[in-house]
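batch job 7 of whatever, protein = Cholesterol 24-hydroxylase
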Amino acid sequence: IAFFQKDTIMISEWVSYMMFYLLATVFCAVLTYCMYVHHVHQKYDHIPGPPRDSFLLGHIPTFSRGAKSDNLVQDLFLQWAEKYGPVYRLNSFHYVVIKVHCPEATKTILMSPKYTKDPFVYKRLFNLFGKRFLGNGLVTAMDHDDWYRQRRIMDPAFSSTYLRSLMGTFNEMSERLMDHLEEIADTKTPVIMHDLVNCVTLDVICKAAFGVDLNLFKQTDSPFQKAVEQCLKGMVFYLRDPFFRLFPKNWKTVQQTKDATELLRKTGNKWIQKRKTAIENGEDVPKDILTQILKTAGMWDSNTETLKNHELMLDNFVTFFIAGQETTANQLSFAIMELGRHPEIYKRAKAEVDEILGTKINIPYEDLGKFTYLSQVLKETLRLYPTAPGTSRWLHEDMVINGLKIPGSCAFSSYVSQRLGKFFKDPLKFDPERFDVNAPKPYYCYYPFALGPRTCLGQVFSQMEAKVVLAKLLQRFEFSLVPGQSFDIKDTGTLRPKSGVICNIKHCS
C-alpha cells in the first residue's frame, strides 16, 4: 500500500510539472505573439488609419459587425479614405493591409505583372469552410507563370470572333426574358427585376460557356441561383470574420455554404465528364469556356490526367459559373434602378435604342457599337456600383506611396476610388455624361474590371450581354420603380441592389 501511495504521489507530481511547463509554454507563446503583434504595430503605425478595436483583433470586430448587418463595409472604407487620405492601414491580428486610392500607385502596381495577388486573401478562397471553392483557378492562381498559362489557354473562348458568334445566344436568352415580361405586363403586377435578369445571365453563361440550356424561366426549383448566392454570402463571412464558424448559431449558414459549394462542383464534374465523352467520341464541340477549361488541365495528354488536374478543371468551372453571371446581373439591376430614378436619362437611352433598332427583334453585332449613350449608362452604373468592388496585391519590396513607406499588402477599392470627390465631380450623382467621348478621362481611378494583366477576362462578354438585354428591355417595355423601395446596396460577395429593384412593367405605347 505504501508503495502504491508513493507511486500515486510521483504520478501526481509528474502531472503537476507537466501542467506547469505546458502553461508556461502557452504563456510564453502568447507573450511572444503579442510582442510580435506589437512589433508589427510599430512597423506600420506611421501610416494613418482608424483606431483599432483591440490590440490583437485590430479592426476585425468592425468587419464582423458589418458582415452581419445591412451596413455596407465599402461605405466605411470610403469614409476612412475621406478622413485619413489616399493611404491608410487596417489591422487584423499580426496582418496589416494598406488601402490605396492613389492613381499613380494604382497604375504602378496593378499594371505590373510583378506584383502578385495578396496570398492572405486569395489563398483563403482556395477553400470555403473546408470545402474546395475556387482552388487554383484563374482568379486565385498566385504563381504568375501558372496564371499566364491558364489565361492564354482561356483566351480563345473570349476572342472577338467567338464573341461575335455568341450574339445568337445573347438574343435568344434575352427573348426569354421579354416573353416572360409580356406575361407580367398583362397581369399588371410588380416584379423584382434582379431575379429576372439573374435568370437571363445564368442561362447565358450556361449555354455560351458550358453548352447547357437551363431555361430557368420554365424552372421553379432550380438550385443554381441559390447556390451561387449562398457561396458568395458565405465568402463574405469567411473572409471578414475568422471566428464565424466557431459559434453554433452560424453552423447552419456554414453547412448551407458547404452544400452549395459541393453542388456547384458536382455539377461541374457532371458537365465536364459529358464534354470529355463527346470529345473522345469524335463529336464536334464548340471552342467555348468548357472546352478551354479541359485544356487547362491537360486533357489532351492522357499522361497528365490526374486528380490534381481534374480539381483544377472544377476550380475554373466554379470561377466562371459564378463570375460569369452574378456580376452582369447586378450591373443590369443597378442600371434599371438608375434609369427608373432618372426619367430624362431613361428617355434619352430609349430614344437611342428606338433609333438604332426600330422594329428589329434580334440585335446584330454591328449595332452594339452604335449604342453610344447606352454604353455611357452602363459605364456610369459600374462607376457607382462596381459589382466586384476591389482587389489586392502583394508588395515584395517596400514602396513609397504618397510620401509614406509601404511594406506588405495593398488593397484597391474601385468602389471607393470611383466615389471620391477629388476624382469625380459630384460623385454620388448618376451622370452618364462623364463618359462622353469628349469628357475628360479619369486617370487610374476607374477600374470596375481591375487593371493590367489580371484585368477581368470576361469584361467584353459581360458588356455585350448587358447591352443586348438592356436594349431589348428599353425597346419593348416601359418600366417604372415601385415607390417606397430601398435604393441601398447589399454586399453578398458582390454588390447588388438591396430591394432587388421592384418595377411596374408596361408594353410600349
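notes: Residues 178 and 473 are 7 Å apart (CA to CA).
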